Amino acid sequence: MFGAGRQGGGGTQTSRTRRPGIRTASPGPSSSVPGGSLFPNATGGAGKAPATGYSQHRERDYQSQPGMAELTQDQKEEISDAFNLFDLNQDRKIDYHELKVAMKALGFDCPKPELLEILRRHGVLATGQPPTAGVSPSNLFITYEAFVDIMSQKIAERDPMEEIGRAFELFAGVGSARQDGREPKIGIEDLRRVAKELGENLEEEELQAMIEEFDIDNDGMINRAEFISICKGD
User: How far is CA 165 from the centre of its chain?
Assistant: First the structure.
């Protein structure tokens, strides 16, 4: 299971996208290592897109999408889940704001100009027809099929090492006052926090066992190098 802490909010939400209890996923790979560990495992390509927490609101229909051919089954599911989560009226189209939060949920916090360019290149009218001249990209919609193609390409192009680094920083709470300038490391309190955020009911002994299993230098914590080794399966 993906272990990085969840980011709240998910960006601007319209009346179509607002839904209680939505937790957007944090950037980083999300596959599990054996034994129910919280740690990610990035072996086998670009890493799994981080949207494992999504509920399945209707039957997935990604199997026939050619744009997803290079992705893992988990990545395919997460793209489909992210779209379905924000397509509240189930018309297989999402608007600018829904596109923004759906992409952020998959780990891509795109600036407004990039989002508008995506809509300009791939957007359609509310009727599903190609846009007419003069229509602003912000008034266009992205179809399910276009979203699949766009996100498949973005996920396939991700740098696994960059994703691992981002996951480590979220695990270790980098940027928070708790680090207090010290070298960031993952301690048992971090695992406890992550487990709680993901709704995992893990005993203290299980959390301690995770630290002991991967703590190479025996300092009682997981440093960046040890975390990278875990994710790469070294």
Answer: 14
